[in-house]
Amino acid sequence: MTKLESYYNKFHEEHRLTTRHGLVEFNTTLKYILQAAENLSGGTNTKIADDFADAPNPHSPAPLKIADIGAGTGRYSIELCHRGFDVTAVELVKHNLEILRSKHENIKTWQGDARNLSFLEDKTFDITLLFGPLYHLHTKQDKLAALNEAKRITKKGGIILVAYVMNEYSVITYCFKQHKWAEVTQKGGLSKDFHIISTDEDLYEYTRLEDIAELNKECNLERIKIISGDGAADFMRRELNEMSEEEFKAFLDFQLAICERPELVGAGSHTVDILRRI
Length: 278
Hints:
- The chain is an alpha/beta fold.
- It has helices at residues 3-10, 13-16, 20-40, 75-82, 94-103, 133-136, 140-153, 167-177, 181-186, 209-219, 237-242, 245-258, and strands spanning 65-69, 86-91, 108-111, 125-130, 154-165, 221-228, 270-277.
- The chain has a seven-stranded mixed beta sheet with strand order 3-2-1-4-5-7-6, sandwiched between helices.
- The longest helix has 21 residues, at 20-40.
- Residues 44-49 have low confidence and may be disordered.
C-alpha cells in the first residue's frame, strides 16, 4: 500500500465536501462545470456563455460525457450523474472507489492512475475533471503526464477543469498559523521566496499561478478562465460553522460573486483552472 492510499484509507474524504468550508468549494466548482456543459450543449443563458463562445456546439440529444479523474468517493461524479450526464470515474485509491461504487451503479468506474489512462479511448469526453491528482504529483514530468492524458481523452474543443492546492494558503496556515515555519525551514522545505519545496515523502504539492501557466503552455491547453474554488473559506472554518443558515447562504453568494477576481485567485486553498482542448 502506498503512502497516499494509506492516507485516504484513514482520511474522511466522504465528509470533506459536505462540511461548510467544503460546500463552498463544491458549490463554486459545480457551477462552473454546469456552465461549461451548458455552453458545450449550445446554451447561451449565462454570463459565462461568452467565455465559452468558441466551444463546439454538437446539438446532440445524447448526454455529454464527463470523465472524473481522481474521483475520490464520487461527490462530483454522483451529482453529475443525477443531473443526466454520462459519467466515467477513475480513482487510484481502492477504498474510495468501493465507496463510490456502493452509492451508484450507473457510473462507469475504473481503478487507475491519472498519469496513465490507457484504458480510456482518445477524444472520448466532452468534459474532463482533474480535481485530485495534481494535489499529489510532485514532479513536473508527472504533472505534465496527467494533464496530457486528460487532454488525450478529451474531445477537440472540449473542456478540462483542473484543481490545484495553492502555495500561499499552505505557507500561511501551516508555517505561520500552526507555527511550523522553523521545522519546515530546517528540513529545506521552503525556498528563499517562500515557495514550498515538496518531496516524495510529502502528501501534497503546492502551486503558484505562474507554475500553472507554465504547465498549460507546455501542454498547449488554452485557458478559458481560472477561479478561486473556495476563496477565504478554508481560512475561516470556525466562523463558517458559527454562521446562521441565512448568513452562510450570503457567504456562498459572496464567494460566487468574487471567485473570478484576479486579485483573489490563488489566495485561497484551491484554484480551478478551466481549459479548452485545442
